[in-house]
Prior knowledge:
The chain is α/β, with parallel strands linked by helices. The chain has a single domain (about 100-510), classed as Rossmann fold. It has helices at about 1-5, 10-35, 40-45, 55-70, 75-85, 115, 130-150, 170-175, 225-230, 245-250, 275-280, 295-310, 325-340, 360-370, 390-400, 440-450; strands spanning about 180-190, 215-220, 235-240, 255-260, 270-275, 315-325, 350-355, 375-380, 415-420, 495, 500.
Amino acid sequence: MENALVKTPLRKLRRRRIKRVWRLKLAWKSIKIRVKSHLPGFLSTKKHLFHVKSRKEEQDLSQVARRICKISNDSTKSLAFLLQLPKYSADDFLDRGDLMTPATSPRENISKMWRELHGSNNWENLLDPLHPWLRREVTKYGEFVESVYDSLDFDPLSEFCGSSRYNRNKLFEELGLTKHGYKVTKYIYAMSHVDVPQWFLSSAMGETWSKDSNWMGFVAVSGDRESLRIGRRDIVVAWRGTVTPTEWFMDLRTSKEPFDCKGEHGKNVVKVQSGFFSIYKSKSKLTRYNKESASEQTMEEVKRLVNFFKDRGEEVSLTITGHSLGGALALMNAYEAARDVPALSGNVSVISFGAPRVGNLAFKERLNSLGVKVLRVVNKQDIVPKLPGIVFNKVLNKLNPITSRLNWVYRHVGTQLKLDVFSSPYVKRDSDLGRAHNLEVYLHVLDGFHCKKSGFRVNARRDVASVNKSTDMLLDHLRIPEFWYQVAHKGLILNKQTGRWVKPVRAPEDIPSPLSTGPKPIYNL
């Protein structure tokens, strides 16, 4: 037997080796042909595989390919597996000017389909697979919310902590969002003296712009060109969320407050979580920015815009969007708008990201009866959408039909679009799951989502580097700094005359003003 093994012809061994090499070459050739036209980034990271200099390199490559690509007689599986690998490398994030791939894809005219995209049929047949037009629209609204985070002054040492760093007229210009074709018409402020964690409070370091209020979002309206593209005049209300969401929702009181005094009484009274209610409804004549509550500020502006454009004979929609706590405020805002502005009948929608449960069964049923359409974008790994009542609610809802009808149990509202953070090939598998709540992570995974059974889209266009704006989730080999989005030098500038580092004085137009909560004229859009 041993002799038989020793006398195995060398020709056979060489033939087997040649077969493996040719199989490998054919596999790479088919891959190159099929993806070269639309995956330049992917091919650039594999260029060295097409230039084998020696037989030893060829053998090493064969072993690596068998281990990674699992090449077998079924070449289709190998290609499908390979296409799921990351297409970016650190070189793809070097600035190459106009030669780089745009971070956004072209936007089509959706005027003939806007009602379906706005939720008229509860997004039926649009979520799995995710319609590309809907993906772009949802991403647009998510970027509006992200703009509130990006321009918020978080510095506890700043006299303007809790305000916007830019006035409403140049917010989108400073953040590169003029491409969406909307104009901000009003800023929204909320009270901060309610029962909230310390981080929500404004700076306590000396005199501040306000000891009682925080900037929470804005009202905006689509311009003429964007309105033609989307088929109607779209009013947007964007609500920001929290800085440390998990701590915030854990600390919230679980009691409920009656929300709709005009609604039914007794067992069917509409109730919402007391902390959300306080932020949305609190006001005081002694404050500069919250003589009106966040609710009153928003509804006043929405009614003004609706009346203005309705008088011009235009179709008007209201899209309310929010992340985290902002998603809760968005639901209450939509409830009031659908109830109090008949001209918006059937055209009120909510797009929320990582939003918690807000109210009881009566709140859910009343929202449905008012015709409010809600699309909840949820990450599988995000704990916040399971709050309040992460265990209690889930058990009661599944126990039996009787307990599932209990009016004091927290309820979710609307249609869910469920995403998986780890579907992205650019995210670390050992990432802190608390980061799964980050809005930029949501937008990244949304951009890569096609359907439940497919992997991350290889032609996703949104900038991957944005994931690390306020997280550390991207793979190390991409060499994107962690938590990179911050004000240069933490807000200090060098005075070139004196050589001293000093805090800059805000431009007068960027200093928060109580007048910004009043009515605004509508400029040419």
